[in-house]
């Protein structure tokens, strides 16, 4: 009896899945040279200097390593140049298609790491890659809609 019930419910799902949905690749396709170059173009040291809605200036110094790690320092200063807040964070990063993503793993202070909560959804960000050149990078956060403009330092 249990087999009959299973067949009555599972068989229609199998038929739907096999006949109605588009076919997919057997495995993840090999990355093209362009896709590999896109990821490589994010490596190195980058800087962003942008006004905030709160009236401050946010300076971001970001270093991305080939092993997928990043360290970013944020400095918020008023228009007189006085630093009102600063923090250094670390985590993992990557590129998949036209999406750049980060996983915030914690803070760095005086050489000591303080881990973040890996269960907190706030620590995961995705960005649409809008423009990449040898010396400029423009990305848009998919949650906030903020656009970030970076220039390469090294």
TrEMBL record:
Keywords: Signal
Signal peptide: 1-17
UniProt-recorded name of the protein: Lipocalin-like domain-containing protein
Organism: Grimontia sedimenti
Higher taxonomy: Bacteria, Pseudomonadati, Pseudomonadota, Gammaproteobacteria, Vibrionales
């Amino acid at each position: 009896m249990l087999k009959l019930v299973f067949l009555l419910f599972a068989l229609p799902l199998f038929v739907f899945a096999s006949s109605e949905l588009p076919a997919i690749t057997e495995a993840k396709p090999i990355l093209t040279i362009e896709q590999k170059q896109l990821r490589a173009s994010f490596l190195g040291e980058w800087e962003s200097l942008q006004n905030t809605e709160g009236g401050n200036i946010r300076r971001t110094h970001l270093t991305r390593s080939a092993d997928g790690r990043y360290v970013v320092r944020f400095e918020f200063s008023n228009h007189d140049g006085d630093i009102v807040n600063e923090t250094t964070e670390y985590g993992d990063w990557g590129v998949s298609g036209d999406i750049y993503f980060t996983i915030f793993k914690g803070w760095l202070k005086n050489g000591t790491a303080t881990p973040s909560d890996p269960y907190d959804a706030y620590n995961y960000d995705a960005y649409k890659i809008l423009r990449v050149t040898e010396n400029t990078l423009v990305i848009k956060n998919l949650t906030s809609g903020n656009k970030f403009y970076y220039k390469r330092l090294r």
